[in-house]
Amino acid sequence: MNIVILRHGEAETYASSDAQRNLTDHGRKQAQQVGLCLKELTINFDQIWVSPYRRAQQTADGVLSQLGSIARETDNSLTPESSASGLVDRLSTHNGDLLIVSHQPLVSTLVGLLVNADQRSGPLMAPASMALLSADVLLAGCCQLQWLRHAPTFEAVI
Of 9, 47, 82, 87, which is most buried with the most CB atoms under 10 A? Predict the structure, then answer.
């Protein structure tokens, strides 16, 4: 099973609330580039889970414009201040390849928890950064980090 954890694209600095921040034009381009990269990698996602925040929803829209139709779920447990350990409990019941679109610090803490069982060990993830993890079961410390990819080149690094 594969899981790609994606931080939303570049967003505006200010809005009436954090949840209402839009992607910039550059962030929209990043989202489409992520979609093209994932399409080239031929990962067949069964589902995409997306934060309810506007910039994450817009990122998912851009990615899906390149990947096509995937079952989409807006998930309130994917906001910036959400608990990574609570999300791991939910992930442990999921089967199939999954794409998650969320925010810092959640994306980094989630990668750290899934790979090293340590929330503080996750990689720095700038806007439009993504991590591919693989595992038989999505539990803390049971995943292997396959690659990290960062805008603008999306070349694989670890």
Answer: 9
